[in-house]
């Protein structure tokens, strides 16, 4: 065993502990959920659980627990093909390709599509998987200031080859939206390709939850859209939608797709069941929007300037410094509110925050109680 190697690892871990940003796996805690990404409550919906069991038990291949290989070997199936056709229609696209996770889908797409002659331009607040994909790519890659179209255009003017604009519909750490109409305009002007991560809009916006681009009727102007299933869908995996040519290219060149074992049948049935449920039930989406409106109105009436009033389920409370941020989160947990302290280096130093997620299953009383607690803690 290389002791010097282990010593180096321990020193880096000790440095994290000193800076109050050492990560540990949390234990299960009782309380009111204001921290999970289960925005619509799909992951805990009893009716969906019953339907999944019913649909799985009636499937001839139910005895096969695993998919047994990658989709290019033994892992493909008619169910896979039919589900991708269903998802392509759901998201208003010509074709769809399922990946095992959002992180894999997004990083694979960005690593695969641009050539060494192209340029990737990503929002500075883009998710880690986007930056990872850019690093894995052979293309040049640069960030632009968050939602700053002037800065994006300056970088588009200097871009080599085909520019790829990489953005999120809803940003996971701030809860704000990208200015998608302006991005589409710039992409057309500079012949750029748009890669849009719809992770935090999937299931919430658009017709039956088909995302932000579809709500704005801009889907035909976006080259690559990625919808992930670990947030409002309450499941696991992701799908990339676009043209048939895009799908064929990813099947042939995306290493994150080619060299991984395919999803098992139970996962696929779960996804189909949830999306069919969304087609038949608009109530969770409407209830979530109601809860978001209650939050916005209450925050604005109480003039809590440190607290966001986003139109998305993601709200933030600005608490500068890792230690104060952790302490505030612990105080809220002691009052029964499960929230997440987001620390540097996940966000830049000085931009630490409490991240609060609103859900369709949260009640108006719970929201008001949380805001009252924040008001008490943040008052001078």
List keywords for this structure.
single chain, 380 residues, alpha/beta, 7-stranded mixed sheet, 3-stranded antiparallel sheet, 14 helices, 43% helix, globular
Care to describe what's here?
With 380 residues, the chain is α/β, with parallel strands linked by helices. It is built from 14 helices and twelve strands. It has a seven-stranded mixed sheet, with helices on both faces. It has a three-stranded antiparallel sheet with strand order 9-12-11, with helices on one face. Strands 1-10 form a two-stranded parallel ribbon. The longest helix has 20 residues, at 283-302. The radius of gyration is 22 Å and the shape is globular. The protein starts with a helix and ends with a helix.
Structure summary:
It contains 14 helices and 12 strands.
Q: Give me the Rg, rounded.
A: 22 Å
Estimate what percentage of residues fall within beta strands: 5-15%
Number of strands: 12
Oligomeric form: single chain
Please give the alpha-carbon distance between the first and last residues: 54 Å
Q: Helical content, roughly?
A: 40-55%
Shape: globular
Summed up, the helix count is 14
Q: Largest sheet, described in full?
A: 7 strands, mixed
Name the poorly predicted regions: none
Give the topology string: H per helix, E per strand.
Answer: HEHHEHEHEHEHEHEEHHHHEHEEEH
- Would you tell me the overall average pLDDT? 95
Strand order of the largest sheet: 2-8-7-6-5-3-4
Q: Structural class of the helix and strand makeup?
A: alpha/beta
């Amino acid at each position: 065993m290389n002791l010097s190697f282990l010593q180096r690892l321990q020193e880096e871990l000790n440095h994290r502990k000193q800076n109050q940003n050492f990560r540990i796996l949390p234990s299960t805690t009782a309380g009111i959920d204001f921290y999970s990404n289960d925005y619509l409550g799909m992951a805990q919906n009893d009716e969906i659980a019953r339907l999944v069991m019913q649909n799985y038990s009636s499937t001839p291949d139910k005895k096969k627990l695993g998919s047994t290989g990658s989709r290019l070997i033994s892992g493909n199936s008619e169910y896979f093909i039919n589900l991708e056709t269903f998802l392509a229609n759901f998201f208003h696209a010509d074709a769809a390709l399922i990946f095992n996770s959002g992180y894999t889908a997004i990083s694979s797409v960005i690593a695969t599509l641009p050539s060494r002659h192209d340029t990737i331009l990503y929002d500075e607040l883009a998710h880690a998987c986007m930056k990872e994909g850019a690093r894995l790519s052979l293309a040049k890659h640069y960030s632009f200031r968050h939602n700053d179209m002037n800065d994006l255009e300056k970088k588009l003017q200097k871009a080599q080859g085909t520019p790829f604009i990489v953005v999120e519909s809803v940003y996971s750490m701030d809860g704000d939206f990208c200015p998608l109409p302006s991005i589409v305009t710039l992409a057309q002007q500079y012949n750029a390709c748009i890669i849009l991560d719809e992770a935090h809009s999937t299931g919430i916006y658009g017709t039956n939850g088909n995302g932000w681009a579809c709500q704005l009727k801009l889907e035909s102007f976006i080259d690559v859209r990625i919808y992930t299933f670990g947030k409002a869908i309450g499941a696991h995996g992701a799908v990339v939608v676009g043209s048939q040519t895009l799908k064929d290219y990813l099947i042939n060149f995306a290493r994150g797709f080619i060299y991984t074992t395919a999803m098992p049948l139970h996962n696929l049935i779960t996804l189909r069941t949830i999306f069919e449920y969304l087609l038949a039930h608009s109530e969770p989406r409407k209830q979530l929007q109601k809860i978001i409106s209650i939050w916005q109105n209450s925050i604005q009436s109480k003039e809590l300037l440190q607290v966001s009033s986003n139109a998305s389920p993601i709200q933030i409370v600005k608490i500068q410094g890792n230690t104060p941020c952790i302490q505030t989160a612990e105080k809220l947990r002691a009052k029964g509110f499960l929230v997440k302290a987001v620390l540097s280096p996940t966000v830049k130093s000085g931009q630490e925050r409490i991240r609060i997620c609103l859900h369709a299953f949260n009640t108006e009383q719970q929201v008001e109680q949380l805001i009252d607690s924040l008001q008490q803690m943040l008052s001078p």
